[in-house]
Amino acid sequence: MTKSFPSSVLIAGAGFMGSAIAYLITTKSSAKVCLYDKFPAALEKAQLAYEQFGSKALEKNLITKAELSKAKGGLTTIDDLNKLPVCDLVIEAIVENLSIKKELFKVLDEKCPKSTIFASNTSSLSITAIASATKRSDKFIGMHFFSPAHIMKLLEVIPAIDTSSQTTKYISDFGASLGKVVITSKDFPGFVTSRLGMVLLNEAAFALMEGLSSAEEIDQGMMLGYNHPMGPLALADFIGLDICLSIMETLHSGFGDSKYRPCPLIRQLVSAGHLGRKTGKGFYSYGK
């Protein structure tokens, strides 16, 4: 690889995560960023989120007006992959669905130069399985950012079975240049963070379902007794109960171990459309 860091990055998916990654890269590197989403409304929402990130950073003196203006100048958007610019790195941040991710990467594989590195922001799905949709498995890797991506310090890097050591180093070094603390994980269901974190969230849901204690007291117990900054049930609401359920299902099917079985209460809440903060109700109720 001739470049130490990418000069151009495509971010596929303009949800909250994609918007935050776009803000992170434009403000912490010299790379030009193109944000793609097939829904124009999602791109409009992403640009509003970008503006909000910038405004909050200005208020906290984390960035100057000149720096923010320069960062904004490095961001473009597209809603059609036929308009795809040449890029050194693709970071996918779309819905947590294996077949949809594979479908996207199959298209990108045909349109991007062979030198382009592909990365998925999946929190639990097999990187090797996603990479199988492409002809560049040596240049395919997991980049698991944490929400909000421009604030959280951790980046989990997951090499697939065929990922080259050069690709792993390139992505790890790039992550560090963005100010992240980088950890690596083998490509097993849930990796390190989702595997450990979701088990706690799931067990907290079982404790609530069984009437062991109230949601507030379960969260207080982990915050005050274990020094967690946020209780597991509040964190589940923040992440989204649909996402938590999806990850638990991935762990359960991937390992075949009953300890990863999703809590029925989570299933019930998801079935009712109570997904947490984004819908106004989950384990807690939120004013909208």
Give the tally of β-strands. 8
Q: What global shape is seen?
A: globular
Low-pLDDT segments, ≥5 res: none
Name the structural class: alpha/beta
Main β sheet profile: 8 strands, mixed
- Tell me the strand order in the biggest sheet: 3-2-1-4-5-6-7-8
SSE map:
Blueprint: E1 8-12, H1 16-28, E2 32-36, H2 40-59, H3 65-73, E3 75-78, E4 89-92, H4 98-111, E5 117-120, H5 127-131, E6 140-145, E7 154-159, H6 165-177, E8 181-184, H7 193-209, H8 215-226, H9 232-239, H10 241-255, H11 264-271
Parallel strand pairs: 1-2, 1-4, 2-3, 4-5, 5-6, 7-8
Antiparallel strand pairs: 6-7
Helix pairs in contact: 1-2, 7-9, 7-10, 10-11
What does it look like?
With 288 residues, this protein is of the alpha/beta class. Helices cover 47% and strands 13% of the residues. The protein has 11 helices and 8 strands. An 8-stranded mixed beta sheet has the order 3-2-1-4-5-6-7-8. A hairpin with an 8-residue loop joins strand 6 and strand 7 (154-159). The termini are far apart. The relative contact order is 0.10. The mean pLDDT is 96.
Q: Quick summary of this structure?
A:
The protein has 288 residues and is α/β, with parallel strands linked by helices. Helices cover 47% and strands 13% of the residues.
Keywords:
288 residues; alpha/beta; eight-stranded mixed β-sheet; 11 helices
